[in-house]
Predict the 3D structure of the following.
Amino acid sequence: MLFVISCLSTVSAVEIKLKGYVPPDFSAIVLHEEYVKIRQILQPGFIDEPDPVTIIFYSGKDERILGVRLPEWGGGGAIGTDSIIVPVDRPSAFYSSDLLKVTLHELVHIAVNRTYGYIRIPRWVHEGLAMALSGEIAFDEHIILSKAVLTNSLVPLDSIEKLNFFPEAKARIAYSQCHFAMRFLLDNYGYDLLPELLNNAVKYRNFETAAIHTYGLATSELQDILTKEISARYRFAFLFSDSSLIWFLILLLAVVGFMVTRSRKKQKMLQMEYQEQLETESIDSDSNI
């Protein structure tokens, strides 16, 4: 059975509606406040917005009734500019199993769609922003990127447009790269340039041109920089994060050390035996004289 919780703040006319199996600790007021913060980052000076955002929490058995379908690894979805769906009994296969973080992730998508939805924003920007602004991050993201570097499995940014059709392993890499790319831009250029980037996309009707005017980087140049950064930071990260692998390496080093020590002792014994043989032969030679 679906039920509705609404929130209308005196600060903004944005209304958050919660429907379905709403987690008991969820607050429409908190979600509303977070949504306003996100909008103000994307659009400084944002105050008012009359259209509500409806968030539906559902179980797997309701999927057909609702007419929705997420990728098998998906933890939530944003639909257009006004609806979010979050399955409560199928936590995301990766990143956050925290339904609040998943919901905030989807709220970022709604905020981007409402602010700049009439221009094409690349999927890697959408997902990178959703992860960066929601605080959603996998504890093993560095391991995912490390293995991707060593197996040459990093995903080109422009191919992430087809993310929903990726298998889970590839999706993990893609999301990790999206997050890394956006954190790289925010850490190196600051949050102030973010709305400038998106406004330039509106101005020039082209994201590639906007990136060049804002950061002085074409997407292909950014791709090369990110690949080098990921490789430099994470190439061998997984070697130090897998405890079983660490113990295996320790055991391997111990075995190698034992074999080296044993080999050295054997060589030393052979050398001593050879020296003794030389001395014996010398004594026998002296006796024959």
